[in-house]
Every structure is written in C-alpha cells, then in structure tokens.
Amino acid sequence: MIKIKIGFIMLMNYSFNENFDYNDESASFDFVSSPTVSDYGKVNDGEVRIISEKIRIPNLKQHLIRPRLSEILGKFCEQFGTTLITGRAGTGKTTLAMNFADGYQQAAWFRVEASDFNWQTFSRYFLASFNEPLLEFINDIPKRESLEANVLQFLEILFSEIETISKNKSILIVLDDLHCVFDAEWFETFLKGLCSYDAPNVHILLLSRTTPPFPLWRLRSKQKLGVLDENLLLFTIEETKEFLKNYGVAEHKANLFHKASYGRISKILELSELILIHDTAD
C-alpha cells in the first residue's frame, strides 16, 4: 500500500507534507546538521573547500512514500552490497533513497556535481560525508605513484574503517547525481573498487540519470552490483489511478493522465497541481 499524508490527514496510498517541489534536481530541501562541516556552510580541507549542503541528507518538505519501490530496493540490498538506481530527472530517485535512509542508523550522503570531476575533490567530499575521525585518518595516507593505486588505497583504508564502525550500526552510503563524474579517468577504478567491498551492515546506493559508459556485466554476474532502472521507478497505471483518486479524478481521466505522464512522478504531480488550481478557481 502507498499512503498520502497532507498535514495530519491520511489519504489513500501516498504520504507527503507541504510545499513539495517534485523535480529531483530543483527540489526545495531543508538540510539536517552534519558533524563534518561548520555551521557557516563551508570548511577547508587542504586545498578543497567543502560546501556543506552537498554532504547533508536532503529533507524534502513534502515527498511521496512508495512501499512498492522500498520493498524492491530492500530486496536488492539483501542481494547486493551496491545498487545503481537509474532514471531521468523527476523519476523519484532522490526521494526513494531519502526514504530508504530512514531505516539506517547512519547515512552518508554526497550530492555529486561536475565540479567534483577531480579525484582529490571527489574523494574529499566523499570522505567528509562520513565524520571527522575518518577525515583525519585518511589525510595521513601516503600518496602512491599512480592515480589508480591512490583510488584503490583510499577505498581499502576507508572501508576497513567503515567495516569496524558497521559492527555496531547499519550504514547507508548514497552518491547522488553520480553521472556527473562518469567520464573522469578515475571513475571506472573507483566503481569497481567500491563494489568489491561487502559488509553485512553497509549498503551503497548510486543514483544516476544513466548507466556508466563501460560494461557492468562482470560486476552484475558476480552479484556485486544490482541495477534498478527507470522502468521500475515509473508509476504503474494502478498506482496512478490510486494516487489521482485523492484529487477526485475519474478512472478514465486517470488513464489519460498516465499516458501523458509516461508514469513519471514529476509529471503526475504537475498534473495533480493543475487539478487543484482548476478546482480552486471554480
């Protein structure tokens, strides 16, 4: 079942609060505090200046809870240590991951941007999404001759620490908008190294608009990586009907709305807002 909550009112299948912005990339977020950054929004980490909003878990003022997808993602995490979630903007990747993070005792979140293309920048942000002890520990790692060796050494030491921490708590790691660095020279090494680590209480979610530009079949065949694609993210016709029922939309119109939206949650919500505006005007 999917439930809708408007304020304190429960309506059918979806749950949400006020002032929702349905576009993943342009959503209005409230950010929770982070122990790794200063209250002034930026901290210095060597030559990299950390912007705190990029490593804070987003807290949407209003969002949909979709049990069908949460159940599917839960099964993925039982089978794979790392799950890649792919879909265009507005398909609900960020919201799904954010809801899923509620089930973990600790979550590290990094919203990747094109400016993180450099390995030093990316690795510092990734590290800062955890906590200060890890940051200080990794800062002392001696540099290797090759970039590939540096990437693998970074992951080896980082996950050695994370494995120790995860003995006492469940940890979710989320890398959002990861497609921004797919073309970086270090990325293939990073992804393959990341997927090689498998701790029972640690799960990794990679959110992206597309799949990486190199084959993933080896990682998938070795059960190191699961892929949840846009086809699973899209609303089914039944979900669309059930959702629009709360706006008083007749079933035959819901069918038209589903076709017009192609099952994308951003478009469904946009149509729903138009319904509310039209009803208010009347």
Question: How does this model look, in words?
Answer:
There is one protein chain. The chain is α/β, with parallel strands linked by helices and 282 residues long. It folds into two domains: 223 residues, Rossmann fold (3-Layer(aba) Sandwich); 45 residues. The chain is 40% helix and 17% strand. The protein has eleven helices and eleven strands. It has a five-stranded parallel sheet with strand order 8-9-10-7-11. Helix 6 links the parallel strand 9 and strand 10. Helix 5 runs parallel beside helix 6. The radius of gyration is 20 Å and the shape is elongated. It starts with a strand and ends with a helix.
Strand content range: 15-25%
| Share of helical residues | 40-55%
CATH architecture assignment of the largest domain: 3-Layer(aba) Sandwich
Radius of gyration, whole Å: 20 Å
As for the number of domains, it is 2
Shape: elongated
Which structural category fits the helices and strands?
Answer: alpha/beta
Keywords:
alpha/beta, elongated, two-stranded antiparallel sheet, 11 helices, disordered N terminus, 2 domains, Rossmann fold
